[in-house]
Amino acid sequence: MQSSSDKAAAFVKMLENCKHYDPDNRYTGALDLCNEIIKSPDQLDEAMEKKICAAFISHLEDKSLEVKSNAVKCIQRTASKIREANLITIVQKLA
């Protein structure tokens, strides 16, 4: 079982990958975040959730088509675990 500080450090590393210059790293970072959110029984803390949503939003404007489509899939898969306010922000960005 991971401690909360280990989990937070893992999320920070995945967020760093989401900002990487290499599209493969950005893709993998978002996918890893998505998988961690889905398998976690706990609600994310609000600050971390906002950072993750911001990463997904930035990927929606990425120059790589694969990164963009992956962001849409990740948003779709994690929508039930994201707070409504953050989901609204994502939807407004999509519109």
Topology of helices and strands:
Elements lengths: L3 H15 L4 H17 L6 H15 L4 H14 L5 H11 L1
Helix pairs in contact: 1-2, 1-3, 2-4, 3-4, 3-5
Model description:
The protein is mainly α and 95 residues long. It has a single domain (4-94), classed as Leucine-rich Repeat Variant, CATH 1.25.10. It is 76% helix and 0% strand. Helix 1 (4-18) packs parallel to helix 3 and helix 2 (23-39) runs parallel beside helix 4 (65-78). The protein is globular, with a radius of gyration of 12 Å. The model has no long low-confidence stretch (mean pLDDT 91).
Q: Using only CA atoms, what is the Rg?
A: 12 Å
Number of DSSP helices?
5
Distance between the termini: 39 Å
**CATH second-level architecture:** Alpha Horseshoe
Using the alpha-carbon principal axes, give the shape.
globular
Number of domains: 1
Element string (H = helix, E = strand) = HHHHH
Counting helices, strands and paired strands, the structural category is mainly alpha
Beta-strand segment tally: 0
Quick rundown:
With 95 residues, this protein is mainly alpha-helical.
Feature tags:
0% strand; globular; 95 residues; Leucine-rich Repeat Variant; mainly alpha
